[in-house]
Amino acid sequence: MSLVVAFDDIKPEQIRKNPGGPDRPASTNFGFFRASPDRTDAPTAFLAKYDPGDRSSAHFHAVDQFQILVQGSGQFGRHEVAPYHVHFARAYTPYGPLHADERAGWTFMTLRTRYDPGAQRLPGALPKLKDVANRKPWQVTTVAEFPNAESGVSFHDLSEIKDDQGLFVKTLAMAPGARATAPEPASGDGQYVVVVQGSLLHEGRERRALTVVHVKPDEHAFEIMAGAQGLEALILNFPRVAPRAAESHAPASAAGFKKWQCLLCAFTYEEAKGLPEEGIPAGTRWADVPENWTCVDCGAGKNDFAMIEVED
Fold it and tell me: What are the backbone dihedrals phi and psi of residue 267, each rounded to the nearest 5 degrees, phi first?
């Protein structure tokens, strides 16, 4: 049976105060539901609220996860994020550092389908990361745009977040009282429906945003009915947990230029394109990138990159 929990349903004992430390911020976590060491295949969904200016060092987790920025703003790595940016990271893919806006702070939703023992922080956890066999690091950060719902129900694909093992994200907009069926969850490792605006009608109750629904792979597709204000929601399907074939998410290099890839998180620097937003013009050779430059996604230094392709 699908789990459906609204923020208004969260009880005091489901709220955790984390004191923080030198490499992690203090935060307030609001738990919708959580896995545990004796329930490792259970889902986890929680809101994490950081104070203005708080920082978190680069780290990774042992399971796949989604994060959705629902309030405030800040930086994931060096990606500027605001509502409703979505970040997906495969297991053992470092990301960060994270920096909440100096004035607004931020609040983000974290979603997992399996138990995770906690953040593994770099550089201390680097030996553990390098011992992981057949690691296929990959992550993506993109903004979710919601379609127009004047016609009743409208879905939109986030094409950047997709693979051949069931991973996908869709945005959904629904007019008041409209009905829709979420995609079948059987293709992946579990599915979430996160209502970020409006409300959801479920079992005779109106659940206001934020409301989180979890559907297991062997359950029927979730039936969605919008409340009196309509709704906007994200549908996030986790990929199957299975060995992955060798793959490349980077496009081919332009003739005469090289590509360099981060050994930790798989971010790719293309000499032909440079990084103009970082002050590195197109055509800048890797040797000419400043030695103090760090990876956009995980903060690794130049020594952590490896050349993956050469075209003369």
Answer: -60, 140
Q: Contact, 149 vs 175, CB < 8 A?
A: yes
Contact 130, 304 (CB under 8 A): no
**pLDDT band for position 312 (cuts 50, 70, 90):** very low
Angstrom distance (rounded) from CA 72 to CA 65: 20
SS3 (DSSP) at 228: strand
Q: Are 129 and 120 in contact (CB under 8 A)?
A: yes
Q: Considering only CA atoms, which of 19, 71, 10, 100 is closest in space to residue 46?
A: 10
CA proximity to 172, closest of 186, 203, 151? 151
Contact of 291 with 309, CB cutoff 8 Å: no
Separation in Å, CA 9 to CA 68, 116, 249: 20, 24, 40
The string of pLDDT tens digits covering residues 251-284 is 555 567 899 999 999 999 999 999 998 899 999 9
Non-local CB neighbours of 261 within 8 Å, separated by 6+ positions: 250, 267, 268, 269, 305, 306, 307, 308
Find all residues with CB under 8 Å of 67, minimum gap 6, and list them. 76, 86, 87, 88, 89, 108, 109, 110, 111
